[in-house]
Amino acid sequence: MSKRIDVENLDVYYGDFLAVEGVSMAIEPRSVTALIGPSGCGKSTFLRTLNRMHEVIPGARVEGRAVMDGQDLYAPEVDPVQVRRQVGMVFQRPNPFPTMSIADNVLAGVRLNNKRISKGDAADTVERSLRGANLWNEVKDRLDKPGSSLSGGQQQRLCIARAIAVEPQVLLMDEPCSALDPISTLAIEDLMSELKNDYTIVIVTHNMQQAARVSDRTAFFNIAGTGQPGKLIEMADTPTMFSSPSVPATEDYISGRFG
Amino acid sequence: MPVATAPASSALTLTGNRLPRWAPWASVAGSALVAWGVLVLTGEHTATTVAALTALLHAVALTSVSRYVEGPRRATDRLATTLVTVAFLLALVPLVSLLWTVVSRGAVLFSGTFLTTDMVGVFGDMTSGGVAHAIVGTLMVTLTATLISVPIGLLTAIYLVEYGRGPLAKGITFFVDVMTGIPSIVAGLFAFALFTLLMGPAYRSGLMGAVALAVLMTPVVIRSVEEMLRLVPNELREASYALGVPKWLTILKVVLRTSVAGIVTGVMLAIARVIGETAPLLITVGMITRTNWDVFEGRMATLPVFAYSQYQQGGVGVDRAWAAALTLILIVMLLNLVARGISRAFRPKTGR
């Protein structure tokens, strides 16, 4: 259950402002694709176009094609709600639902959609998802406690469990470790290398070492200046990107000689 | 005043002279004594003048002593503390005085019988009779007004926060603000005119009053619900969307569920705002002496109008008016307690 996404010539707008211009890339199934680049270069914006979360912002729109297994996500007949059921997302800041218990947070994708689920199935889903997110052993005795009672790193893993509970094809992660300490970060990085056996993962990160550690392929985004659109500079296998990138700007950024 | 000794000041000292903890209290006590003494000598010692002079003397004494001992920064702090405390006590005076007046004067007639009898067959100087019919009327009219204004207010607020863009939303916000300022008598006349047009000139019912109150209540509900919905973090909406939850279910199960505690409080404040309205009810629902449970037909008694008409009557009516006012305050307090219970039960769970 993982799919590839082919992006062709994607332009992303906020109203009249062109935020990201002309991105074409192939996102391989069962692998981790890392998006790196300076702040404001459009990595997160681009990531949010992959599950049509971008258009939640008023005035935001997209031109171009993003094809998941033969289906253009931006075809007129495509329902964004259905896309989001296939392409899950984990955000920068952990955002468990404050009114729900740990177990209910994991089941949120089911419960919020008014689907009926038997008690046994619910318990199975909770355990499978929490095990999948490496959180089961820490919370199995307090599943009925509120999700906000967990530490930041645990909350982020709870959000990952919530995202994989609906069994998506693709998992998008927008700087999932930027608010976490090194130990929680390590836990989530380990988790990513396990999850890529089942899912297509795309991760935005500011941490070069993290991109090098977890990703199979890396894409470098850059921006010419404020008010200019962000662009995909180059994309290659991670070892190639970090040892011999073809564009000088990539090497400057990766080696910290940027700007 | 004894002062803790500190090392001679140098460029890098972290310690300083402090007044002892009891210094403010000593200053208050001293000021009160001096103020009382002075005013007794001048023969103008009322509670108000003594309190005012005490506050003034205390502020001057404490600030100047503090300035001498502790330096200008702490002296300013003490002055600000004194001013804030005085302002707080001043604000408390009318509240306590009002409660005391209502309780002491209302207690004359207030009893179980007063709450459970109506005014049928009560004439002249008879001290019997009660407010049962007015309690029923107030609760029925306010409940009907709530049933009208809460759905309208809630849906309008949801539109403004979750959907509204451009001139329509701006226009609605503007008119809601205008509606907040409508004088209650205008709302009453509006309801009166509306029902006269629809039902003929002789029609009187609780519904008329409820519509008048709903006109006053709706903007308050919209405003408070809107604030509560805007407090719900966008991250929660996005988290829900990212799970493939449609917008309407997100609003229903995440946005409203997260803000329900605040919404209940807001609705309660709106109810408290209209439950004591007199003018619009005086010209719409009028007054009768027996209990009327039917909001669609006939006049109804309400507590504020009852208090007003009894007070006009004079004599024992004045005592009834105070007891009715006490009843009204108790009802509002009870509703507030219920609302607190509800919002506590639905509050987002935090803590470990």
What are its keywords?
heterodimer, A: 259 residues, alpha/beta, ten-stranded mixed β-sheet, 25% strand, B: mainly alpha, MetI-like fold, 2 domains, phosphate transport (chain B), Phosphate transport system permease protein PstA (chain B), membrane (chain B), transport (chain B), transmembrane (chain B)
Order of helices and strands of chain B: HHHHHHHHHHHHH
Shape of chain B: flat
In oligomeric terms, what are we looking at? Answer: heterodimer
Q: Tally the structural domains of chain B.
A: 2
Shape of chain A: globular
CATH topology of the domain at 5-94 and 170-254 in chain A: Rossmann fold
CATH architecture of the largest domain in chain B: Orthogonal Bundle
Give the averaged pLDDT of chain A, no decimals: 89
What is the CATH topology classification name of the largest domain in chain B? MetI-like fold
GO molecular function, one term (chain A): ATP binding
Protein name (chain A): Phosphate ABC transporter ATP-binding protein
Pfam families (chain A): ABC_tran (PF00005)
InterPro entries (chain A): AAA+_ATPase (IPR003593), ABC_transporter-like_ATP-bd (IPR003439), ABC_transporter-like_CS (IPR017871), P-loop_NTPase (IPR027417), PstB-like (IPR005670)
